[in-house]
């Protein structure tokens, strides 16, 4: 059942976000849109309460509980940037805002971007692991929480793999793509 709650929270995140942005831009209801956008973190609170209630009700921690902690960590760490990403696109499309910024393509700017994203992943991992350890301490029964310790290793592995992007961009920065020369119309092969 907790997997369904996680899926519902992911869907709820996007529904609340889209509702807030739709109210803000196409409907021009700025305050309503801002209020809805402020409700986005409440979706995470629903998942946290559902996970805690399930464990408090005597459930043995399993895959879903670890996934909930990981989801919450990544949602907190990346949530603001996801809202900003969507806001830029809505503002451009419905309010004449500037074109959305993409990630830098090369050079030092791209390297900084990759390290910043890695920093968010590190924060997400720290939050996820803190939630896992808090659940283990809260339940206080090693037999019921054994599966949660495995999730700390999974999150660490994801972070280690993620580190490859900023490291490779630091060691071998991407170079600008060379412009292709237009074909010579006089030359016919």
From TrEMBL:
Q: What keywords sit in the KW lines?
A: Membrane, Transmembrane, Transmembrane helix
Where are its TM segments located? 34-53, 59-79, 118-139, 151-172
Q: Know the name of this protein?
A: Uncharacterized protein
**What organism does this protein naturally occur in?**
Actinomadura decatromicini
């Amino acid at each position: 059942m907790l997997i369904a709650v996680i899926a519902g929270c992911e869907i709820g995140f996007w529904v609340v976000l889209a509702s807030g942005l739709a109210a803000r831009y196409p409907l021009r209801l700025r305050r309503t849109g801002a209020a809805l956008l402020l409700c986005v973190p409440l979706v995470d609170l629903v998942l946290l309460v559902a996970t805690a209630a399930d464990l408090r009700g005597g459930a043995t921690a399993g895959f879903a509980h670890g996934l909930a902690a990981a989801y919450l960590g990544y949602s907190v760490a990346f949530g603001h940037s996801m809202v900003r990403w969507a806001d830029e696109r809505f503002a451009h499309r419905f309010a004449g805002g500037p074109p959305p910024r993409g990630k830098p393509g090369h050079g030092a700017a791209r390297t900084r971007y990759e390290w910043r994203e890695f920093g968010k992943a590190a924060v997400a991992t720290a939050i996820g692991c803190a939630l896992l350890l808090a659940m283990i301490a809260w339940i206080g029964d090693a037999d019921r929480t054994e599966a949660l310790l495995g999730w700390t290793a999974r999150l660490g592995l994801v972070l280690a793999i993620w580190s490859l992007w900023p490291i490779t961009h630091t060691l071998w920065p991407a170079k600008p793509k060379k412009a292709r020369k237009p074909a010579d119309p006089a030359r016919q092969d």
